[in-house]
Design goal:
Shape: globular
Strand order of the largest sheet: 1-2-3
Strand content: 5-15%
Radius of gyration: 17 Å
Order of helices and strands: HEEHHHHHHE
Helix content: 40-55%
Number of strands: 3
Structural class: alpha+beta
Oligomer: single chain
Length: 183
C-alpha cells in the first residue's frame, strides 16, 4: 500500500510539473485533487478541495480557487514533510478551524517541526483562528506549558463564538503570522 501511495504522489508531482510548464504556474482548477489542499496558486489564492455527491451517489472531488489570498505566497504545493509535521491531510475538504479544538491536532501544529518550518500551514491556521477570535501563539503556548485552564478557556471561547467573518473577507498576511518558537 505504501508503494501505491508513493507512485500516486510521484504521478501527481509529474502532472503538476507539466501543468506548470504548460500554464506558467499553479492554477487551482487544474491541480490534481491529491495535491490541492494547502496549495497556493500563481495569483496567491489558496486552493481548496471541494467534495460533491453526484445524483448516482458517487463522490466527486474538485480543486477550486478560494477567496482567501495568501500574500507573499505563490506557486506553492505543500511538502509531504510539512503535511506530516503539522498533522494535516492531502485530501482535506474545505478550510475550517474545527480541527483547532482537537487537542492532538493543535499540539502537533504547535510543535517546532511544524510551527517553525511550515509557514504556509501556520499562516493559514493563524489567520483562520484569528477570524474566530483565537490568537494561535497563545494557544500554542498553552499547549507547550500544559496550561489546561488556558486551553479550556481558549477552546470554549472559540466553540461559543459565532463566526464573524466569511472566507471572502479574510486576507492572509505572512507579516501578521506568528514568529517561530524555540525548540
Amino acid at each position: 500500500m505504501a508503494v501505491g501511495r508513493l507512485l500516486l504522489a510521484i504521478s501527481a508531482l509529474i502532472l503538476l510539473i507539466s501543468l506548470q510548464v504548460v500554464y506558467g504556474g499553479i492554477v487551482c482548477e487544474k491541480l490534481p485533487v491529491e495535491v490541492c489542499a494547502f496549495s497556493v496558486s500563481s495569483s496567491g489564492a489558496r486552493c481548496v478541495l471541494e467534495k460533491s455527491i453526484l445524483r448516482n451517489g458517487n463522490v466527486q472531488y474538485e480543486c477550486q480557487r478560494s477567496e482567501i489570498i495568501a500574500e507573499n505566497l505563490k506557486d506553492l504545493i505543500e511538502t509531504d514533510e510539512c503535511m506530516n509535521a503539522c498533522g494535516v491531510e492531502r485530501m482535506t475538504v474545505g478550510m475550517s478551524t474545527d480541527s483547532l479544538v482537537q487537542g492532538g491536532f493543535t499540539k502537533k501544529l504547535c510543535l517546532p517541526p511544524c510551527y517553525n518550518k511550515c509557514p504556509n500551514i501556520i499562516d493559514l491556521y493563524f489567520n483562520l483562528a484569528a477570524g474566530e477570535g483565537i490568537y494561535l501563539p497563545r494557544l500554542c503556548e498553552a499547549h507547550r506549558t500544559g496550561d489546561r485552564r488556558m486551553i479550556s478557556e481558549l477552546v470554549t471561547s472559540f466553540a461559543a463564538a459565532p463566526a464573524t467573518i466569511g472566507f471572502g473577507d479574510i486576507i492572509i498576511s505572512p507579516t501578521s503570522a506568528p514568529s517561530p518558537i524555540s525548540s
